[in-house]
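Hello Y.,

Per our agreement to keep a running log of every chain we model this quarter, I'm adding this entry. I've kept the format consistent with earlier entries: sequence first, then predicted structure.
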Amino acid sequence: MRIVSLLPAATEISFALGAGGEIVGRSHECDFPAEAASLPVVSRPRMDPSRPGPEIHASVEALLGRGLAIYEIDVELLARLKPDVILTQDQCAVCAVPLSQVEAAARKSLARDVTIVSLSPMSLADVREDFFRVGRALGRDAGPMAASFDATLDTVRRRPRRTPLPRVLGLEWLDPPMAAGNWFAELLEIAGGIPAVPPTERTERISWEAIEAAAPDLTVVAPCGFALGRALEELARLTRRLPGRVCAIDGNAYINRPGPRLAESASIIAEAVRGGPAEAGKWVWIPAPSK
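Predicted structure for the entry above:
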C-alpha cells in the first residue's frame, strides 16, 4: 500500500499503527515521528508561517477573503507518488489542507481510483474513533492504540484533585486571543480544572475584556501550530494581559494535533493544574511580569 498523509495527526496515527513504512508522501507540517521528516513533501503554505502571530492571522484572513486556499498541493509530485490512500481532514480549512482541495488535486493528477480518508474530530471520542477509521483504511488493528489512549486518560482522571477546583482558561491563539474549543476544553476538565469560560464546540475569538472578567486561576497557552519556542515569543509581549498563573505548552505537539499524544496532553495540563514542575521541551511556567 502507498499512503500520502496530508495531516500531521494522521501521520502520527499511521506510524503508531505500524504503517509508517508505507507512507510515501507527507504534508509540510508532518514532523513526528522523526522518520517522517525524510518523506517527500506534497503541500506548502501560501503564507509565511515563521511570521509573528498577528501577521499570520492577517495573511490567513486576506487569503480567505479573496476566496483563495491557504495551502498548495504539488499535483505533479502527487501523481508521481501514485498513492492508494490519501489521509486528510475537513475539520478546519486554516489548520491543514482541506478535503475539497485534496479531492480536486486527486482528480487532476491521479489516473486511477484512490481512497481518500478525511478526519474531522471535534471531541476526544472522535479522535479515538479516527484511530479505527485510519486503521480500517490501512488494514491495521487500532485496538491496542485506543486502549493505551483510554488508559492514560483514565490515569489522569484518577489523580487527586485540588480543592476547590481551579478555574482554567485555555488559549489556542494570542493575537487576537482565541479560547479553547473542541477537545482542548475536554482536556482541561479531565486534568482537574473548571473551564473559566463556557466550552464551545470550536475555537472562538475572545476579547481581552472577557479574559479579564473570566478571572482564571490558570491560563494554559498553546498557540495552534506553534512549538514551545514560538509560543514563548508570542507571550513575551502579552503576558501582562493574562490573569492568574500562566503556562505555555508546545501546542503543535501536544494540544492542537488530534492524535495519540492528546492523552499525554491531558497529563501535562494536569501537572500544571496541580502547580507541579514544568517539563523541559514540553511546557514551562511563565514568570509573573514585574510591576
